[in-house]
Amino acid sequence: MKNVLVTGGAGFIGSNFINYILDKRDDYFVVNLDKLTYAGNLENLIPSEGKKNYRFVRGDICNAELVDYLFNKYKIKYVINFAAESHVDRSILGSEVFFRSNVIGTNVLLESARRYNVEKFLQVSTDEVYGSLGAEGLFTETTELHPNSPYSSSKAAADLMALSFHHTYGVPVVITRCSNNYGPYQFPEKLIPLMIINTLNNKKLPVYGDGMNVRDWIYVIDHNKAVEAVFESGKPGEVYNVGASNEMPNIEIVKLILKELNKDESLIEYVKDRPGHDRRYAIDSSKIQNELGWKPEFEFEEAISRTIKWYVDNKNWWERIISGEYQKYYQTQYGSR
Ligand code: NAD
Ligand code: DAU
Fold first, then answer.
1. What is the mean pLDDT of the chain?
2. Which of 22, 166, 256, 316 is most exposed, with the fewest beta carbons within 10 Å of its own?
3. In this model, does residue 194 exceed pLDDT 90?
């Protein structure tokens, strides 16, 4: 049995990971430590609830005493750290909690991991640590780090802290740097669910700048499988880029969503650009493909349709979210449109 501390498992990617892994394997004992911030939602984990090899603990990864207690109580030998403040726009509105959870929180986990001699520590990172690309080229694992937002800077700091624990103390750290995910249970502040939900509600679709910023999209289950591959076979001290070679300008995604939902493009509204908005991300994932045998399995066309359908079919899930504290954030970020 592998006793794994999975942090941030009530968020979008972490919950998909836990549901995926517990469905597939019974040799993982998963302790899910999540603070349940605005982005954490236990409804995402209904498929895993009640499984004998699953425990949920509500708590903060910055709480060193709690983290140490959990390592001891559950004989933790593995860590997968998804927990983070994850939204770039919110990091622009206020950076402190990003520094706390993403940098200090990761450091707390690393300290316990060191003391308890963990066998693997997987830090879930992002392609945003590399900064922005021009019209050509791809991020590789040797691309210089050049984070531009408070969010991506905090993720880069956490990566460097994790790598230093490998170099200095021999903690078997591995890092994944994935591109933009989409799929079920994604919090509606992010581009794809925001646009789907606004379309369903006949609300304006706020496109930043000229809509030509490019992101490289991957279905969340492909990311989960990459995390599994790196967790199982990644070499300590190494970084693995994860992406599905699916670059698209934002406006194309927005138009595709409108088309799938039979709505008119007049819902599109170009709004003030995100400050410091990175122009283009694109990932070279040949290292994980060649060395670990992972490759993306989901075709964008099919997986985006399936995702749109999920939001259409799971109105209760997102209606509960957008009726709460989210309204205040929406007002601050987008005004009264
Ligand atoms: P999310 O915002 O949906 O979920 C984050 C989860 O972490 C929430 O459940 C939240 O409650 C929890 N959390 C936040 N601070 C915490 C703390 N201090 N202690 C314990 N729990 C805390 O995020 P996501 O999109 O699922 O991203 C998960 C991870 O993947 C993040 O580390 C993010 O940087 C990384 N990532 C995301 C993407 C993407 O496209 N969404 C791409 C690459 C990497
Ligand atoms: O690249 C990986 C990263 O992808 C992750 O590390 C982050 O956690 C995740 O949030 C995501 O960051 P982005 O900033 O790329 O994602 P977001 O969905 O916020 O925005 C995607 C693009 O869409 C970006 O160019 C900004 C644009 N956008 C976004 C919103 C919310 C709009 O034009 N309008 C919007 O309202």
1. 97
2. 316
3. yes
Give the residue from 181, 166, 304 showing the smallest Cα distance to 238: 166
**pLDDT tens readout for residues 176-188:** 999 999 999 999 9
Distance between Cα 4 and ligand 2 center (Å): 29
107 pocket-lining for ligand 1 (C-beta < 6 Å): no
Q: Which two tokens stand for residue 176?
A: 């994944």
Ligand 2 atom nearest residue 190's Cα? 18
Burial class (CB in 10 A: 0-12, 13-18, 19+), 27: exposed
Local structure of residue 104 (DSSP, 8 states) = I
- Point out the ligand 2 atom lying closest to the alpha carbon of residue 250: 23
- The burial class, CB within 10 Å (0-12 / 13-18 / 19+), for 263 is middle
pLDDT of residue 325: 86
Say yes or no to pLDDT of 336 above 80.
Answer: no
Catalytic residue from among 60, 85, 128, 216: 128
Question: Rounded to two decimals, what is the model's pTM?
Answer: 0.98
Does CATH place domain 2-334 in 3.40.50.1820? Answer: no
In the reported structure, the alpha carbon of residue 248 is separated from the centroid of ligand 1 by a whole-number distance in angstroms of 23
Domain boundaries, the chain: 2-334
From the candidates 20, 130, 151, 185, give the one annotated as an active-site residue. Answer: 151
For the purposes of burial, counting CB atoms within 10 Å of the CB of 260, is it exposed (0-12), middle (13-18) or buried (19 or more)? middle
- pLDDT tens digits for 74-91? 999 999 999 999 999 999
Residue nearest to atom 19 of ligand 1 (CA): 60
Position 337 pLDDT exceeds 70 = no
Q: To 5 degrees, how large is the angle CA 146–CA 221–CA 40?
A: 75
Residue 233 and residue 292 in contact, taking contact as beta carbons nearer than 8 Å: yes
Rounded to the nearest angstrom, the distance between the alpha carbon of 26 and the centre of ligand 2 is 35
